[in-house]
ATP-dependent DNA helicase RecQ zinc-binding domain-containing protein (Mus musculus), 217 residues
Amino acid sequence: MVVMENVGQQKLYEMVSYCQNVSKCRRVLIAQHFDEVWNADACNKMCDNCCKDVSFEKKNVTQHCRDLIKILKQAEGLNEKLTPLKLIDAWMGKGAAKLRVAGVVAPALPREDLERIVAHALLQQYLKEDYSFTAYATISYLKVGPRACLLSNEAHAVTMQVKKSAQSSVRGALSEARQVEQVDSKGEEQSSASGSSPEINTTSAPGRLGGQAGFKR
């Protein structure tokens, strides 16, 4: 097991971070691991991240991390240990009722996204692993990490990169369309306002030519 090696866990977390990254060129990440330089433009869309025609956005997951800490602290008070699977079950309102926290609302996200948030919190040290060794297996439990105290600060934010949702794209398109409509309507108002005054002035002074009819010298 990597946990028994000196830098085994560090290397494992580097691999998890590599898998968590959904936007950066894979070849750049590999080059950085081997202390080499690689230009992402040279990838020519040959890796899975570069070939994706998907836009990304930063998502604030601070409250999600706080909810995870609440669940872990309650479990610790009950002298219960939570594996990553049990933690996610309690977060989703499933599993043993005693592990659920009344103030934690189950997030309306697929389980895959919740797993990514837990992995992100682990990599950022808001959570930490605690191992239990048996004769047949090594079991990993999750506990409150060394950086969890930062979450008590309202100004502290935890963000992670996610795929931009279709709803966000629609909202952006609608906002852009509204801006275009506003510009067009303002242009029409200005055109109608500038076009109406010469007509009034022209009728008030018949017999003169063009726009000179309504202007005073």
